[in-house]
Amino acid sequence: MTNEGATSTRTTPVFFVAGGTGISAETLGNLMLQQFPSVAFERRKFPFVTTVERAREVRGVFDAACTDSVTPLVFSSVSDDEVRQELQQTRCAFIDLFGSHLDLIERVLSVNATHGGAPLHGLGDTRRYDARMKAIEYAMEHDDGASLRHLESADLILVAPSRCGKTPTSMYLALQHGLKVANYPLVEEDFDTGGLPRPIRGLVDRCFGLLSTPARLSQVRGERRPGSKYASMGQCSYELRRAEALYRAHRIPSINSASMSVEEMAAVIMQSSNLSGLL
Known about the structure:
- The structure is a single chain.
- By secondary structure, this protein is an alpha/beta fold.
- It has ten helices and eight strands.
- It has two domains: 99 residues, Rossmann fold (3-Layer(aba) Sandwich); 147 residues, Rossmann fold (3-Layer(aba) Sandwich).
- Strands 2-1-3-4 form a four-stranded parallel beta sheet, covered by helices on one side.
- Helix 5 runs antiparallel to helix 6, helix 6 packs across helix 10 and helix 8 crosses helix 9.
- The radius of gyration is 22 Å and the shape is globular.
C-alpha cells in the first residue's frame, strides 16, 4: 500500500464489462476509482458480453494487460452465471458488482435469483426502456433551444450561457434516469434585458441554471472558436455574471459546472429539483 500523499506515475488498466450497455459497471467503477486521485487509469469498456465464447475472448484481453508490476482492475456487472464464471478466471483483480451481492439479497428476500442474462438493453422492463428512449428523443429535439414544441412536457429545463455543459447533462439525465430534459441557451438579448427567454418564462419552476468559471469557459469556447470575442475572458466573465444575476432575480437554482463531472451535476440537479427519474 502506498502512502496517502504519494503520487503514482504508473498507469493501471481498468476494464468495465457487462452483459448490457455497461453504464452501471462504468458508473459504479468510476465512483470507486475517484477515491484514488493520485493514480492514473487507462479505461476500456466491453458491453454486451452475453456468451461464454465472448467472455473467453474478453478475458484474453484482460490477461494480456497483466504484467509483473501492474495488476489491471475489472469491474463487472455481468449477471449470467456461466459468463461470469468464465470472466472470473482472469488473472486481473475482478470486482463483481453483481454476483457478490446476490447471496445476501436472496437470504433477505427468501427468494432465489434467476441468475439469467439480462436483456440487451439491460432494463428488463419494456415500459422503463421505452421511457428512456422517449426521454432521449426529447432531449435531442430540445437541445440548445432547437425546438419549442411541448416545452411544457419537460421534467427539467437547463438554462445557461453557451458551452456550460447543457447538452451532455441533458443527455445523461435522459439516458440514465429517463427524464425529459430541454436545454435553452442564454444569449446577448437576455443579458441586456435581464429577463428569461420568452418561451420559458412561464416554466421557471422547471428551470435550473448552469454556471462555470471564466477561465474554464474561455478554454472550452477557445477550442471551438480560437481567438474570438466569444471565447475571450472578458466576454465569458460578462456572460457568467449576468447569468448568475438572472438566476438570482428569478429564483432559479444553479450550480457551477467547472469542476464537476456530468454524473455529479446530474445527482445535484435531481436532488435540488426533487426529481426521482427511473430507478
